[in-house]
Amino acid sequence: MTTSVPVESPRSPTLNRLTAGPLRVLVSLIVPAITFLVLRWAFIFMRDAEANKLAVGIVALIIGVGGVWALYLVTDNLVSILPEGIRESIRPFVFVGPALVILTLYLVYPVVRTIYLSFMGPRSEEFVGLANYVFALTSDDMLLALRNNVLWLIFVTSFVVSLGLIIAVLVDRIGRWEPIAKSFIFLPMAISAVGASVIWKFVYSFQPIQRPQIGLLNAVYTALGGDPQGWLVLKPWNNFFLIAILIWVLTGFAMVVLSAAIKGVPSELLEASRIDGASEIRIFFGVIIPYIRGTLITITTTVLIMVLKVFDIVFVMTGGQFDTEVIANRMFREMFTFGNFGRSSALAMVLLVAVIPVMIYNVRSLEASKR
Amino acid sequence: MNVGYQTARGASSDRLRRFLSGAPVRIVVLLIALVWTLPSAGLLVSSLRPANDITSSGWWTVFAHPFEASVWTVENYVQVLTTHGLGNALLNSVLVTVPSVVIPITIAAFAAYAFAWLEFPGRKFLFIVVVGLMVVPLQMSLIPLLRLYTQLDLNGTFLGLWLAHTGFGLPLAVFLLFGYISTLPGEIIESARVDGASPLTTFTRLVLPLSVPVVASFAIFQFLWVWNDLLVALVFLGTKEEVAVVTARLAALVGRRGEQWHVLTAGAFVGMAVPLLVFFLLQRYFVRGLTAGSVKG
């Protein structure tokens, strides 16, 4: 009796491998082939389809979401049929390969290509030496854009960080209203720059003097006795009205992050300083600020980078007219309005060179704070 | 003398302390919150007013008689969603955003896992290169990619935009996911290996489920980034009505219908509705994602 129990004993491993082997190889080759064909069909379908929107949409979502997973499963399966010796040394590249390919195509190659294009003429047909850089750094148009970028950098960064810090300190002391107040100040961060631009275009809206003002700013200004102004064409102050928008967007972000940092200051430290008779102001500058220094640096550099590349607000509000041009918007216009790829590439290089030091500093301090 | 000075200072710091914990601070903060909300509130109120009212009186005047039905209307929303094509644009935004979030996360998770737990030549070097690419402003990529896309016939396609967002989001995604995945306890991963689990199984059954918090944070950041993006969508999709996303449509409306406030206010709010929903529902993850994602280049 007892000996008949292992009747359904599994076949020996060798036998198993012999019968399963060819089948597995076959499956492993057919499945990728089918996957490839399906992806290729979907690719062409999506590229050419003027067809039914919803159908394209559904195919798109399935391919977009499922296709990537299929890619990994299939290639991993393919690698599994390789001889044992090389199998495990190839497998890691199944995992990192796609990321490396995409990064090469979307970031490494373009950087190299942009460097090359920045030394070429408008249509990239002839070598022009440093002409595009001379334009980018010395022409009147660009000097204006550079000046405006500097204005943006100084005012947005200083206002966002200091306002964010002040509000973070104040909001810490209002008890149960804190989350609500924070939500409302933080809310603009969820709004796109385009949406924010519409909101503020409405605030700055201008009506002739006899008509009722519908823009908040002109309504307040006329109520105080002034004549209605077209704020967005009022050189050079219009730059500051654009800058105010980004301050409005980013202050909440700075506040939320700094508030979290301030809550991390040990209360024993604060109590001890209070018992020693230190004033609130001294505690703020002597205890809190040094304690949250790392966060302050991160916030400042982050805001600097965001401001440096400001595009949407200017693009939507004024399109860079009325002396409000900035580098990123000019770059876009060189490319699409003037069709000058050389200059546009040189402007991209200016942005890169300006970002690199800030970014290195940022990642460094991030690494340091982790340790 | 010395004592007098001490008490005087003590008294003044006491007064400041009382001020800082009392009603005045509450009022100051609520005022700031009010000022910060007013512009958006004006937009929301205006979008619900009849077109003629918007241009003939300030939006704050509705509060004189807020309960009269004639001062409110949803007509503007009906109009922007149908005749101005924002309904279609909304669908396009969804079609652009979902894969543009899922694809980079998937690819980054696989890569981060390999960088953290698999052995291969050049691992450290490649990781540094990947993270180093965070410095590249995406503006750098636009012209070369546009040319490449023209050759491949990818201009104006969703696929092209997904891949672009994937490429631009990857360095940060790998950096963040690596930071999390590499701190998972090594014994768990090792024991899975000893039990005969393949790297793929270890990844899908063990590493991925454990990484849900960081994946969620990055997903929210990337979602907002893609949904609110104008530049990349403008360059690779354009403003043609069949494919344009909400931000691109809205930017085009601002250009063409600069003073038609009933269209602009309702349109802007349509574009804001989804991110605001995410904002209010997932605020905690939102903050985390934003904080983590703010170093994106």
Structural write-up:
- The complex is a heterodimer of chains A (371) and B (297).
- With 371 residues, chain A is an all-alpha fold.
- Chain A is 74% helix and 0% strand.
- The radius of gyration of chain A is 30 Å and the shape is globular.
- Chain A starts with 12 loop residues before the first helix and ends with a helix.
- Chain B has two domains: 2-73, no CATH class; 81-293, Orthogonal Bundle (MetI-like fold).
- Chain B is 76% helix and 0% strand.
- The longest helix of chain B has 32 residues, at 86-117.
- The termini of chain B are far apart.
- Mean pLDDT of chain B is 81; it is low at 1-10.
- The chains are: A mainly alpha (371), B mainly alpha (297).
- Chains A and B meet through helix 1, helix 2, helix 3, helix 5 and helix 6 of A and helix 1, helix 2, helix 3, helix 5 and helix 6 of B.
What are the defining features of this structure?
heterodimer, A: mainly alpha, MetI-like fold, 2 domains, globular, disordered N terminus, B: 297 residues, mainly alpha, 15 helices
Mean pLDDT of chain B: 81
* Nearest-integer average pLDDT of chain A: 81
Question: How many domains in all of chain B?
Answer: 2
Query: What's the overall geometry of chain A?
Result: globular
Uncertain stretches of 5 or more adjacent residues of chain B: 1-10
Q: With helices defined by DSSP (H or I, 4 residues minimum), what is the helix count of chain A?
A: 15
The main sheet of chain B comes to:
none
How many strand segments of chain B? 0
CATH topology of the largest domain in chain B: MetI-like fold
Order of helices and strands of chain A: HHHHHHHHHHHHHHH
**What is the ordering of alpha helices and beta strands of chain B?**
HHHHHHHHHHHHHHH
Number of strands of chain A: 0
Distance between the termini of chain B: 59 Å
CATH homologous group name of the largest domain in chain A: MetI-like
Radius of gyration of chain B: 26 Å
- Total discrete domains of chain A: 2
Q: Give me the CATH superfamily of the largest domain in chain B.
A: MetI-like
- State the shape of chain B: globular
